[in-house]
Structure formats: structure tokens, C-alpha cells
Design goal:
about 475 residues, Ammonium transporter fold, 3-stranded mixed beta sheet, 17 helices, globular
Length: about 475
């Protein structure tokens, strides 16, 4: 064991510090929300009206995406299956615990306490998805100590950015195209830019897949695919908005999947299907419909967005990822810029178009629920009229469609800027020597951090030193 990468002291010491910190903060600040607090139950409350029964199915679905979907998807490398799945498990578990505190401070903090309920867990899972997407850019080139530090730093940057954008820019982002996909992508690219390894610019001998690792990875794709409608619809308004979100996500995923198979075959020199395309490009439609997922865009538009997003994602893997690595010092291991960056930008553009085209004739009075910031401000007689049609409608800012669209654009650029800056700074911190960064020769190799079974060595011997077959 190389003493510079040994986890014997580093990992236990970091975990102990983090657990003590979390225990103290939970003891001081975290309590139950009204739906979990026994003192709030009486002969008027009905158990089946508890928010658990409304929110838990979405929580469970996103849990499957986080721990099984992402975990299996990241196990595509032949000699890094343990690292892909297990480091995903470790990072996700810590991130959700940490995000409950950090996000809770901005969203659920009052009376000196963070009031914990299932909705907090769902929000924390979305923060966790951000970190795991960013993780994809540095897969195989970081230690578990570095990944925990990365999560520890990224969660506050994400939470502050999310809070500032939602509080001051007041945007529509039901599927998280801006605040999840774009933020995660450009944070991850910032980290990998700072961690650039010149010796890996032409690839690595162990940066290859195998028959079994590809099967495991596509299993992760299937879990993500099946549960993506819950991811996109979990935080939308209940009722017709959530219904549309499920429909649009499924339609977008379906069209992107069909397109991915066609593109994979037509661009393959032997006219065959490439597993890397199926593992990644098929998911593009779920991202591309995100910004407009709850709007009245029509099923045909959702279908078209799936095709467009898939095409951009595929071409990004084929041409843009090698360009970034060669010319911009961005070694994007899992191609997150294609699946989350390019498709996120397309999604945001589609969302802006949907905002500009939205009319009360198309949506009815519910337009002011979906586009809450276009609702008339307090004191406007029009607000009273709308509240008679939609009881509980809250005052808005009275924005026009054009004004709201400009705020969406401002959110895109501010989110990308904050994410990239935060990622670069985090990357430089991760270069500190005591964080057990793996040497270039030991990247993409489970043996560095795991006790591996005996058949692992027999697999290594099958790989000639000059063999290289990059996923991308």
C-alpha cells in the first residue's frame, strides 16, 4: 500500500469529523415538521392526510435513482466497478445528511430550528443528484476522501446559488434544468479542469469496459429511465401540472431512446450498436423536457425535445468531449457536459420559449399558478378576481412574459458562473496532498482502495499494456 494513498487514517479521521459535526448540528437545529410531530396530532387530524402518503412515493423513486441508478451507471469501467458503485454509495449517503442541514437552513428554518419532513429528504436527494452528476466528471481519478470533501464543499455552493436564484430572480425550473443539471455539469467541469492530468490526455490503459461492466451500467440506465418521471415531477404543483410532467418526461425519454439506437448504428463504422450510447444518450430526453415539463407545451413538443436533446448529446460525446480534453484541459470522464450541459441548455431555451408563448387563453386562470411571478401583485383588483377562481392563489410580481424570460436567461448565466467558479476552487482544494489523490498509473483501478477478489488479478492479466478503449 502506497502511504500517500492509504485510507487507514485519512478516511476514518474525515468520517469521524463529519459525523461529529453532523451529530452536533442535528442536535441543535433539527426537529420534526408538523406532519411528523406527535404534539400536532389531535382528534381533528386524519392520519391518511399526512404528507407522508403524498410525498413518500416520490422520495422512494428518487432513492432508487440515486443509489441504484447512478451507482450501476457509474460501474461501466472494467477495473473500477467497486469504485463506481461504492463511492457513489458513500458520497450519496453523506450528501443527503449534509444537504438536509444546509438546504434546511435556507428553506425550512424558522423558530431557530430546521423542521424535518419527507419533503426535506426529497430536496436533499436533488442536491445529492447534483453532487453525483459532478462526480461523473472525475470518476476513477479521485479518492473517497476527495469525494467527501468535494460533496462537503459543493452542497453549500449549490444551496446558496439555489436560494439566491429562487429568491431574487424568481424563475420557473420544475425539472431542475438550471439549478440541477447546469449547476452540476459546470461545477464538475470546473473541478476536473483544476485536477487536469496531462499524463492522461491520451487515455489510460485501464480506461476500458467489459461485457459484464457494460451490462451492469445499462441496468443503471434502466433504473434511471423508469424513475425519471418521478424525478421531474416530484416538486411540481399537485394535479394537472404533475400529470403533465409525468407524461412529458416519459414521451421525451421514449423519443430520445429511439433516436439513440438509430444514431449509434448509423455512426458506427461497422453499423453496430455501441453500449456507451445506450447507457447515456437514451436518457437525454429526460433532461431536455425538464424546464418546460409542467407547462402546456404539447406531447408533440416533448417528443421533439427528446429527439433534439438526444442528437445534441450523441454529437457531444462523439466530437465535443475529445475537443474539451485536447484543447481546454477538461477531462470529462463520463461526458456530463453532453448529458446534462448541452441538453440542459436546450431545455432552458425550450422553457423560455414556452414562457413567451404562454397565454391565459391556453392555460386558463391556472397560468398564474404555474407562472407564479406573473400573477398580479398584492392590491391589484385583478388578483381578487383570480383568487375567486383559484382559492389560495398567492400574489405575484406582475411580470410580463418577456420580463420572466429575461430573468430565466439571467438565472442560466449566473448559475453557470457560480458553478464553474465554485468547481475550480474546489478542484484546487482537492489537490492538497493529504487527500489521497491516486497517482496517474493507479487511476481507474479498484485495487488501489479496495481488497479485491482473486479473479480481479486474472482479469488484469488479460489486458495488454497497449490496449486502450475509452468509453467516450
Amino acid at each position: 500500500m502506497n502511504p500517500s494513498t492509504s485510507l487507514r487514517l485519512r478516511l476514518p479521521a474525515l468520517v469521524l469529523m463529519l459525523e461529529v459535526l453532523l451529530l452536533v448540528l442535528y442536535s441543535i437545529f433539527v426537529t420534526y415538521d408538523d406532519n411528523a410531530d406527535s404534539k400536532m396530532q389531535n382528534n381533528v387530524t386524519k392520519p391518511m392526510d399526512n404528507s407522508l402518503y403524498r410525498d413518500y412515493p416520490f422520495f422512494a423513486d428518487v432513492q432508487v435513482m440515486i443509489f441504484i441508478g447512478f451507482g450501476c451507471l457509474l460501474a461501466f469501467l472494467r477495473f473500477y466497478g467497486f469504485g463506481g458503485m461504492v463511492f457513489n454509495f458513500l458520497t450519496a449517503t453523506f450528501t443527503i445528511q449534509w444537504a438536509i442541514l444546509v438546504q434546511g437552513y435556507f428553506q425550512f428554518y424558522h423558530d431557530g430550528k430546521i423542521h424535518l419532513g419527507v419533503i426535506n429528504l426529497i430536496n436533499a436527494e436533488f442536491a445529492c443528484a447534483v453532487i453525483l452528476i459532478s462526480f461523473g466528471a472525475v470518476l476513477g481519478k479521485t479518492s473517497p476522501v476527495q469525494l467527501l470533501v468535494m460533496a462537503f464543499l459543493e452542497v453549500p455552493v449549490f444551496s446558496v446559488t439555489e436560494w439566491a436564484v429562487l429568491k431574487y430572480l424568481r424563475i420557473n425550473d420544475a425539472g431542475g434544468s438550471i439549478l440541477i443539471h447546469l449547476f452540476a455539469c459546470y461545477f464538475g467541469l470546473g473541478v476536473t479542469f483544476a485536477l487536469y492530468r496531462p499524463n492522461l490526455k491520451n487515455g489510460h490503459v485501464k480506461e476500458i469496459t467489459s461485457y459484464h461492466s457494460d451490462i451492469l451500467s445499462v441496468l443503471g440506465t434502466l433504473f434511471l429511465w423508469v424513475f425519471w418521471p418521478s424525478f421531474n415531477s416530484a416538486l411540481t404543483l399537485k394535479g394537472d401540472d404533475q400529470h403533465r410532467a409525468v407524461l412529458h418526461t416519459f414521451i421525451g425519454l421514449s423519443s430520445s431512446t429511439m433516436t439513440a439506437f438509430a444514431l449509434s448504428a448509423v455512426f458506427n463504422k461497422n453499423g453496430k450498436i455501441t453500449m456507451a450510447d445506450i447507457q447515456n444518450v437514451t436518457l437525454a430526453g429526460g433532461v431536455t423536457v425538464g424546464a418546460s415539463v409542467d407547462m402546456m407545451i404539447s406531447p408533440a413538443a416533448a417528443y421533439g425535445l427528446g429527439i433534439l436533446g438526444c442528437t445534441a448529446c450523441y454529437l457531444g460525446y462523439r466530437y465535443l468531449t475529445p475537443f474539451l480534453a485536447k484543447h481546454l484541459r477538461i477531462q470529462d470522464q463520463c461526458g456530463i457536459h453532453n448529458l446534462h450541459g448541452l441538453t440542459g441548455l436546450i431545455s432552458c431555451t425550450a422553457g423560455i420559449c414556452a414562457i413567451l408563448l404562454a397565454t391565459e387563453e391556453q392555460y386558463g386562470p391556472s397560468m398564474y399558478e404555474i407562472f407564479a411571478h406573473r400573477s398580479p401583485p398584492l392590491g391589484d383588483p385583478r388578483l381578487l378576481e383570480l383568487q375567486q377562481l383559484i382559492p389560495g392563489l398567492k400574489p405575484g410580481l406582475g411580470r410580463s412574459a418577456q420580463e420572466q424570460a429575461l430573468y430565466q436567461v439571467a438565472a442560466i448565466f449566473s448559475t453557470i458562473g457560480a458553478a464553474a467558479a465554485g468547481g475550480v476552487l474546489t478542484g484546487f482544494i482537492l489537490k492538497l496532498p493529504f487527500l489521497a489523490s491516486p497517482p496517474d498509473d493507479d487511476c481507474f483501478d479498484d485495487e488501489l482502495f479496495f481488497d479485491v477478489p482473486s479473479d480481479f488479478y486474472s482479469e488484469v492479466k488479460k489486458v495488454p499494456l497497449n490496449e486502450h478503449d475509452s468509453k467516450v
